[in-house]
Every structure is written in C-alpha cells, then in structure tokens.
C-alpha cells in the first residue's frame, strides 16, 4: 500500500504505522494532491479506510449556491460541512484571508459491507480545528 | 524612474517574493485490514 500511495501524483512521502493503522501522507511542496484519488488508491490496495483527515491552507469562498468552500488551488476546492467552526469562518468568505484548517474529509459509515471509494463523489470537509488566519 | 520602468520592476519582482501558498499540507488516514 505504501508503494501504491507513493506513486500517486503530488505525494512526497508515505509513513505507515501497522500498530495503530495510521497512514500519514506528506504532499510535495509544489505538487497537487487529490485526497479522493488517495482514498481510491488505498481501497485498490485492499485496505479499508476508516477515516481521512486533512490539514490545508486556502481561502474561504462562497459558491453560487451559497455554500462555503475552502479553495486550496484555483481548480481544487472542498465544500465545508456546516458546523460552528465553518460558521465562524463565514465573514472571511471571498476575502483575501488565508486560513489553515484541520478537518475530516471522509469517515466510514456504519455497516460491515466493504464499499469501494468513489473518486467522482466530491468530498466534504468537516472542519475540526482552525489553526491560523493570515 | 518612470511609471513604465516601475511597472516592469514590479512585474519581475513580485513572483519572487515569498507568499503564503494555498495548499494541502498534510493528510492522515486511519485504515483497517492492513497486515
């Protein structure tokens, strides 16, 4: 799995801890990494993902439907799940302020049936912590 | 320095200035069924 993930675009390094089932992925500094592709690549390695957390820096943008979005690249953004932390970021929408947040992009739902991750389904970001506003 | 020279200077200097780049900094997964 480590080799499989390491071959994904934008991945600098992959650390796997067999003891606690933790996989840490360090992106390349100038590379574009796609969490949905990582999720798919992990499933392709016959391993089930229970949870995927991400730390990212970007701008808060409100899309046409009024949904808050974290824009990390011009062509890469994540819709935010509404919670107290996302509501607190609403005043920064469409401003030049960059925020660094840690959030959950994927969590396995109940049920024993193994379900293959679908990279075409957009992942939503549940903000767990706002680390920096600059 | 006229306005044209100043504009050219800014054009070449700005991309070199450090800036807070938007990016994914770290990803962590908890997996099951790993042997």
Describe this structure as you would to a colleague.
The complex is a heterodimer of chains A (134) and B (35). Chain A has 3 helices and 7 strands, in the order H-E-E-H-E-E-E-H-E-E. By secondary structure, chain A is of the alpha+beta class. Chain A has one domain (2-133): OB fold (Dihydrolipoamide Acetyltransferase, E2P), CATH 2.40.50. In chain A, the strands form 2 sheets. In chain A, strands 3-4-5-7-6 form a 5-stranded mixed β-barrel. In chain A, strand 4 and strand 5 form a beta hairpin. The longest helix of chain A has 10 residues, at 35-44. Chain A starts with a helix and ends with a strand. Chain B is α+β, with helices and mostly antiparallel strands. Chain B is built from 1 helix and 1 strand, in the order H-E. The longest helix of chain B has 11 residues, at 3-13. The N and C termini of chain B lie far apart (67 Å). The interface between A and B is medium-sized, with 38 and 15 residues. Strand 3 (48-62) of chain A pairs antiparallel with strand 1 of chain B, so a sheet runs across the interface.
Large-scale geometry of chain A: globular
Q: What's the CATH C level of chain A?
A: Mainly Beta
Spatial extent as radius of gyration of chain B: 22 Å
Overall 3D shape of chain B: rod-shaped
Poorly predicted runs of chain A: none
Biggest sheet of chain B: strands, sense, closure? none
The main β sheet of chain A shows up as: 5 strands, mixed, barrel
Structural class call of chain A reads alpha+beta
CATH topology value of chain A: OB fold (Dihydrolipoamide Acetyltransferase, E2P)
Largest interface by Cβ-Cβ < 8 Å: A-B, 38 and 15 residues
Q: What percent of residues of chain A adopt helix (DSSP H or I)?
A: 10-25%
Query: What is the helix content of chain B?
Result: 25-40%
């Amino acid at each position: 799995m480590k080799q499989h993930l390491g071959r994904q675009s934008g991945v600098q390094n992959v650390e796997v801890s067999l003891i606690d089932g933790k996989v840490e992925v360090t992106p390349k500094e100038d590379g574009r990494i796609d969490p949905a592709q990582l999720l798919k690549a992990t499933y392709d390695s016959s391993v089930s993902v229970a949870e995927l957390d991400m730390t990212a820096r970007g701008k808060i943008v409100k899309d046409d439907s009024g949904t808050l979005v974290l824009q990390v690249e011009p062509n890469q953004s994540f819709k935010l799940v509404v919670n107290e932390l996302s509501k607190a970021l609403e005043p920064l929408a469409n401003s030049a302020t960059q925020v660094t947040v840690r959030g959950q992009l994927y969590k396995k739902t109940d049920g024993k049936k193994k379900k293959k991750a679908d990279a075409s389904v957009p992942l939503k970001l549940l903000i767990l912590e706002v680390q920096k506003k600059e | 320095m006229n306005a044209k020279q100043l504009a050219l200077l800014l054009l070449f200097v700005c991309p070199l200035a450090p800036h807070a780049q938007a990016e994914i900094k770290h990803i962590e997964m908890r997996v099951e069924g790993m042997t």
